[in-house]
Amino acid sequence: MSVVPADVLPGGALAVEEQVPVGAAELGPKARLWPSLVAVYRAQLSRARVARIPLLFVATFQSIGIMILMRGVVDGGGEAQAVVAGSAVLVVAFVALNLLAQYFGQLRASGGLDHYATLPVPPAAVVLGAAGAYASFTVPGTVVTAVFGCLLFGLPMTHLWVLVAVIPLAGAALAGLGAALGLLAPRPEFATLLGQLGMSAALLLGVLPAERMPEALRLARDLLPSTYGVEAFARTFGDRPDWAFVLGDLAVCAVVGVISLAVATWAYRRAAVR
Fold this sequence. Notes:
The chain is mostly helical. It has helices spanning 13-19, 33-48, 52-71, 77-109, 112-118, 123-136, 138-153, 163-184, 188-207, 215-223, 226-235, 243-272.
């Protein structure tokens, strides 16, 4: 009876180990933008839904109160159109600039960006998903503000359907700016301050009629993204709206929205790697 070493047997343990091929593990497919965006949007929508009543109450009644105050100063005409349009877009600015800047500022300070950095989602999906979720709550308040303003100042409601384009385009431009402010601010307190200053600028430069502003404020008004949403909405109150100018203002909102969201995405990547 002979003893044969196990390593020479074809079925031995060492022989089996030597037969196992060594290769690199295959990586999963890269996450696509649209499915990731939908997933982040739904997650953010469910989280922000808890605060939907305060959002609607504060943003809407703030704009309605401003119109009531302006009713004693403005009688009608082009100034009334500017007040109603500016107050309606102010609801979007309150959420997109103020609250979104606070959200991303707190997310950066609390380390929440580390959670999103571990997920297989593109940075643009995180920014767009959060911005879209917060902006979704502005739709009822904007419509209510516009209807109330038309009744208060006696303006026609024939072309209120243009809000379907004004809300997302102006919201995208302001949301990208608000997200960038929150992500670039060194501390959450500064993010809150910058968001409130941005909303105050939208209030001052968007609601007040441009004819009553000094030249310096008019130039600053042209630099504010929400101005073109206000102008597009205000032009529709006329008897014969010039739709070429309306489309031009909406196109400016769209371009500014793409640029601001791209800056916010860059700011997210910059904050996530620190």
